[in-house]
Amino acid sequence: MSNIKSKLINAKPEANEPVDKVWGVGSTSMGDDLSPFERVNRYKKFVLDTEFTVDSQRALLMTEACKMNEGKPQQLIIAESYAHILKNVDIHIYPDELIIGEIAAPLKASPIYPEYSYRWIPDEINNAPWDQRADNQYYATKKVQEDLLSIADYWNNNTVEELTISRMSPEELGFSHLEGKCGYLPGMFLNAGVCHTVARYERVFEQGYGGIRKTVVDAYEAHKATGVEDEYKDNFYKSLLITVDAAIEFMNRYSKLAKDMAEKESDEKRKAELLKISENCAWVSTNPPRTFWEALQLWVFTTNFTLIEANSSMSYGRFDQYMFPFYQKDLENGVLTKDEMQELLEMTFVKCLTPTKLRDAGTTLAAAGRGMGGESLTIGGVDIYGKDATNEMSFMVLNAYAHVRIVTPWIAVRLHAKTPEDFKIKLANVLRIGTGQPKVFNDEVAIPASLLAGRTLQDSRDYNVLGCVEPDAAGREYGWHDAAYVSSIKILEMALNNGRCFGCSDACPRFGKCAGVGETLSIDTGSLRDFKSMDEIITSFDKQMEYWTGHILSMLNKLDKAHQELKPLPFLSLVMDGCIEKGLDVSAGGAIYNFTGPQGAGVGNIADSLSAIEKLVFEDKEVTGEEFVDALNKNWEGYDKLYAKVNSDKVPHYGNNDQYADKYAEMAFNTYCSHVEDKPNGHGGKFLPGMYTVSSNVPLGLFLGATPDGRKAGEPIADCLGACHNISGSHDITGPTNMLHSLAKLDHVRATNGTLMNWKLTPSSLEGENGRNNLITLLDEIVDTKVMHGQFNIIGREVLLDAQENPEEYKDLLVRVAGYSAYFTELNVHLQNDLIGRTELSL
């Protein structure tokens, strides 16, 4: 490679920016030439200009293979189907690409995964075409639609979703969004695959797929030598061999395609590139990578293999740690310069934008965006010995993001008490661009939380961020993170109203008026009409939480079992520590750590609801419990004065460092955790509580009537651990320091599946060196006060309002939604309004 490197990559000198490089404040435009590399800018434009489409080939091949293998054990049916897809799906290499590979569909085309959920596919083709959506549009040719309709009968009553729903109790079904009550959202795994995890990239780099195959063969031979009859293990090892052989062949298919294209290429530079790409693919098909370029290629292939198997979000682990040795080696050996590796890195980041996922119309309310989702890439933090692990690759990743400014990957930065100052300066300058990236995590909290979850000290120090905000031991953990969203404020509603709903919203886009109005949905634990003290209310809430978390965890375990029965994951089992050694599929508990992480939502709403009730009903006696219930049933109509007071500073609110309200946030937080943590899950591990909503606060609010915190029916609930921002105004009004102190009163360590805090900062307060230093001070305070997470929108309200009014002028406007950034104009209007309504703070 060293002999032809200059012919392959035209790196611009000094592409790695100085530490104190300033890219602007609140300048969220992507632009066409932000990267110093012409090829990166050209490739990014090509990718962004490509339409989002739907592709039917994976679905047809999956169906065909399942039919061909009927009668075999399910492990082998799935492995043979996976192999059939890899052997037969069309593959492509696109102009300018140096890193290649797809997810069994062309660039920016969504493959379909009928094994998980399918009934919505023909329904939306016939009744709600994807290209006619108000947002998240996809285009499907007539042939693709006909292909997908042709296999609908086969998948009827033959999916993970339908098997799970058939086993759900009336309570589990009735309290979910499936019947319009929306006490909880079952999460992405009801209609998608579970690869919301991280491959053990280090293992792949160390062994290569040839070495991994040998490990499987050795384990299989050792199993057979025991003489113990075990049909499951026998089929498990067979499934892994079928899968790894198909993966090796798939990489060699790309190698051949690159070589064939090179033979027809007239441009000598591109011919040399294609030949090198062919060589890279052939080598890494079985061998460990030798160079930075080969490692990136194997990294993309490995990620894509997991996404071909399961259409859930795959994260990337501690990228700066496992890529740094290849960087060092190439520099030492003169293979590539730092700038040449920077160009490859930026090309690969743009490549991360090409996988895409079609979601059903209902899911897009809670999870907007057309990417696969969850592609977190972690840098910084401490090493396994507790020492700072920041390296040159950490800085290169931040530079790469500043140069490409796209929604993927989701950069996650780990901070700790001794994070180097120059790294914080670089981080602050990238944050000030205003795209919502990176997100920031606090080792001083995440490591103790990881230990509490049951990971070893070394694995806890080596945590990566998975998906939106979940701590994870990369390649050692099948965590089922982000498993469900539990509406704690809906549960409080049950606690205040004899297990019944208050009046409900007519705004729900799916069901209209909530199906739960007038029904008794839950056990009767009393009513605000009759309660004599706050202690009675808290006791009622605790009983309701125990009742509903019991049902929700039961539902998740049924979903877990349905995945194990219908869709084992042989490829993921190859690249996850523990599975080969145990002879157990990752879906069934083969990993070293096996968790399930449902999230609690609505902490701010509960705090302000109970604060209002204590203040106005029990302390000042301005209103009776009966009158308060009547106001909620009437959506505050006829109760203008009460509504105004609840939303005024006359009532203490969470987010202002006022213990009167903050104590109820602590109560809500701890009550949820106490009823979730350490309960046994369905794949041999335990449940971990998380405390965040991502963007589910919007649909959870759409299905919810008026609440005592001053929300009106249909409004979003509070996002994540933030304060309420009702239509009448935000409740955190005393500045960022007080918000941080309220937040710090919560025991973030106890939320072992993660917490999330969105900050919205005014660009003007971050201008200049003083503004940068103020931001660094806030980051330091987050670390010092033991808050687990923070992420930042640095954009003015007026810009968002103008973008909503003139979307064609803001197509490249990136914003932080929750655990992820997205293009503002691609969000539905409910999410847009939620972002506009968040409290705007000045530092």
Explain the layout of strands and helices:
Blueprint: H1 5-8, H2 38-49, E1 53-54, H3 57-68, H4 74-88, E2 109-110, H5 120-127, H6 142-150, H7 152-155, H8 160-167, H9 170-174, E3 184-185, E4 197-198, H10 201-225, H11 231-264, H12 268-284, H13 292-309, E5 314-315, H14 319-333, H15 338-351, H16 363-366, E6 376-380, H17 392-404, E7 410-415, H18 421-431, E8 439-442, H19 443-453, H20 457-461, E9 464-466, E10 470-472, E11 477-478, E12 481-487, H21 488-496, H22 534-566, H23 570-574, H24 579-582, E13 593-601, H25 603-619, H26 625-633, H27 640-646, H28 659-676, E14 686-687, E15 690-691, H29 697-702, E16 725-726, E17 729-730, H30 736-744, E18 758-761, H31 768-784, E19 789-794, H32 797-805, E20 814-816, E21 821-823, H33 829-837
Parallel strand pairs: 1-2, 4-5, 6-7, 7-8, 11-13, 12-13, 13-14, 13-15, 18-19
Antiparallel strand pairs: 3-12, 8-19, 9-10, 16-17, 20-21
Helix pairs in contact: 2-15, 3-4, 4-11, 8-22, 10-11, 11-12, 12-13, 13-15, 14-17, 15-17, 17-18, 18-31, 21-22, 22-28, 25-28, 32-33
- Please indicate the percent range of residues in DSSP E strands (runs of 2 or more): 5-15%
Q: How many angstroms separate the termini?
A: 50 Å
Shape: globular
Biggest pleated sheet: 6 strands, mixed
> Could you report the average pLDDT, rounded to the nearest whole number?
93
Cα-based radius of gyration, to the nearest Å: 26 Å
In total, the number of strands is 21
The unreliable regions are 1-7, 505-516
Q: Helical stretch count?
A: 33
Structural class: alpha/beta
Percent range for helical residues?
A: 40-55%
